[in-house]
Design goal:
271 residues; alpha/beta; four-stranded parallel sheet; 9 helices; globular
């Protein structure tokens, strides 16, 4: 299964020439940054907070990152479950922010605009979804909400922003047609992922994820869980295991050593 195809359109960068000098957009991670760049093409630049190779689950802000946030007109981030390091920073700085996934009980974050009002991008029905941009329907909903927010900042750029949004949605439709063709007939094939953060992608395409090595990539799985994974491989319920470039799969290498299983790579952060 080629999951890279799922990311290909969602994280493509549109070329842009003229930018609004008075609007500073900062996205926390590359997938959000690239989608935002599509919607803001020709009207604003989007800077990315996390450097290549960093994981949003355990990242620590550097002094330069805090300076970037202090200058930001708008921070676009995933939410506290995926990026807990940003919650206190947002609360302390009061930077205007759009959270893609917001927990139901997470209130009180304000922006630094006249309304002093937080914009809730989307309260996802599945609180465990860590990578919502992998689901095409989630991506188009996010793009629509982001477009409306950018229009609030730049009402004179509404025509261009709406045009960008229409182009993005169309590209997702084309991507859907391509991916459905690739995945046809593969829905029942079992596979194992490095960490359990692909619910949107799995549900959307009806795929068969047998297991995940870990729910939290920062924590090592227990012996009982590892044994269950090895049994799933030995019983051939899973024919492929996916690693991620952000993490060293030492435990995964140990548990699959000597077993006949294919290996692929999922890059949820489009690095």
């Amino acid at each position: 299964m080629n999951f890279r195809a799922t990311l290909a359109v969602l994280v493509s960068i549109a070329s842009s020439s003229t930018f609004a000098a008075d609007l500073n957009l900062v996205a926390s991670i590359k997938p959000i940054s690239l989608i935002a760049s599509e919607i803001a093409s020709g009207v604003a630049e989007v800077d990315t907070l996390l450097p290549p190779g960093a994981s949003p689950h355990d990242f620590s802000l550097r002094p330069s990152d805090r300076k970037s946030l202090a200058k930001a007109d708008l921070l676009i981030w995933t939410g506290g479950m995926t990026e807990p390091y940003l919650e206190r920073v947002i609360e302390a700085s009061g930077v205007a922010n759009l959270a893609w996934v917001l927990e139901a009980d997470n209130h009180g974050v304000h922006d630094d605009h006249q309304n002093q009002q937080q914009v809730d991008m989307h309260e996802h029905e599945h609180g465990s979804e860590l990578h919502p941009w992998l689901a095409p329907d989630e991506a188009t909903q996010f793009a629509d909400r982001l477009a409306h927010e950018l229009i609030r900042f730049m009402p004179d750029k509404e025509v261009q922003i709406q045009k960008n949004l229409e182009g993005f949605v169309q590209s997702v439709v084309l991507m859907e047609q391509h991916n459905l063709g690739i995945l046809k007939g593969l829905e029942k094939r079992g596979f194992i992922v490095f960490h359990d953060a692909y619910a949107g992608l799995i549900d959307h395409y009806g795929l068969n994820q047998v297991a995940a090595f870990s729910v939290d990539p920062a924590r090592k799985p227990g012996a009982k869980h590892l044994q269950q994974i090895r049994e799933a491989i030995e019983s051939q319920r899973a024919g492929c295991v996916f690693v991620e470039p952000q993490f060293e799969p030492a435990t995964l290498n140990a548990i699959t050593r000597g077993l006949d299983i294919k290996r692929g790579e999922l890059d949820p952060l489009a690095l």
